[in-house]
Amino acid sequence: MAVPVRGLGLDQPADVAGADSETDPAAPAPEGPVPGRVVPSLVEVILCSGFPTQLVLAGLLAAAGFAALAPTGEPSYGYIVTLTLLDVLVVLGLVVTFLHARDESVRELVFGARPPEREAALGVLLTPPIVVAAIGLLLLIGWLAPALRNVPDNPFAAMLATPGRALLFALVVVLAGGLREELQRAFILRRFDQHLGGGWLGLVLFSIAFGLGHAIQGWDTVIVTGALGALWGALYLTRGSAVAAMVSHTGFNLTQIALAVAAGTQ
Q1: pLDDT tens profile 162-182
Q2: Contact at 8 Å (CB) between 241 and 116?
Q3: What are the residues whose beta carbons fall under 8 Å from the beta carbon of 14, sequence distance 6 or more?
Q4: Which of 37, 43, 79, 253 shows a CA-CA span of 20 to 30 A to 259?
Q5: Residue 83: which residues within 8 A CB-CB, separation 6 or more?
Q6: What is the Cα gyration radius of the chain?
Q7: Is this structure's pTM higher than 0.90?
């Protein structure tokens, strides 16, 4: 859940941890297309993309009497939190199930062959430049194409109105962004790399979908979040580990919330 709050959230992946390409483990080589795996892999990618699961969950919540909008017309805090946490559980369950069905390891998908401590440090170091670059990209879009800012006020800003809500929302974005979205992205890119035309094709397609998933926040946010998704996906493809992207995504989201809360108290 990369949710650039107005005036916040891009950059380029750089191995600021100083990795030596000759000594560091390389990303695992792709298996290559396997006959009979294309259609099942495509189904797995679609199911784990987040769109089908959220549509089903939204329907179930509506049937249970949950309103998507508050009386003020803004997204309902309880609805968003419930939907997001349920989707985290469902998507993670699907990813783990599909991996185990092919005797693949969740640990290998997440950690690859690189030391997790080193990848986590890289993620921490990447977070500040990503935040700064995302702010700069939002400002640049607002200057070059102001019409793309079609949602003047972030619809999720009201969810940070109290300290308790801000803390719970911080937990939600860590689980939904740093954990679910990065494991989801790593899984989808792996399936593309194995059977669906290559990881970089998957990165382009999923980054577009990732950006469009934030359309409720405006077209400028769609562009920024799409670019962020491409960045974190490229980090995974080049390093063979999701740890740096998970840590960076988590730090990015928490920084956004902290800045939004600070701005709301002024």
Answers
A1: 888 889 999 999 999 999 999
A2: yes
A3: 126
A4: 79
A5: 54, 57, 58, 61
A6: 18
A7: no
